[in-house]
């Protein structure tokens, strides 16, 4: 399977935007739990709040 270079760049940009948003939400979950370090349960909670499947 072949991809055009601009298609790969578009996918990369979309994925980076998704991950940045997810980590922002994950950090808010950690702060809410009075922690400064994110944990996997924070990611799971952020995804659940967003309505994503695990």
UniProtKB/TrEMBL annotation:
Please list the residue ranges annotated as the Core Histone H2A/H2B/H3 domain: 1-49
State the superkingdom. Answer: Eukaryota
GO terms (molecular function) for this protein are: DNA binding; protein heterodimerization activity; structural constituent of chromatin
Pfam families per UniProt = Histone
UniProt lists the family membership as follows: Belongs to the histone H3 family.
- Its name, as the record gives it, is Core Histone H2A/H2B/H3 domain-containing protein
State a GO cellular component annotated for this protein. nucleosome
* InterPro entries recorded: H2A/H2B/H3, Histone-fold, Histone_H3/CENP-A
């Amino acid at each position: 399977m072949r991809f055009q270079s601009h298609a790969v760049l578009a996918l990369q940009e979309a994925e980076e935007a998704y991950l940045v948003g997810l980590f922002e939400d994950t950090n808010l979950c950690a702060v809410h739990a009075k922690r400064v370090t994110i944990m996997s349960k924070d990611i799971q909670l952020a995804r659940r709040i967003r309505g994503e499947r695990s």
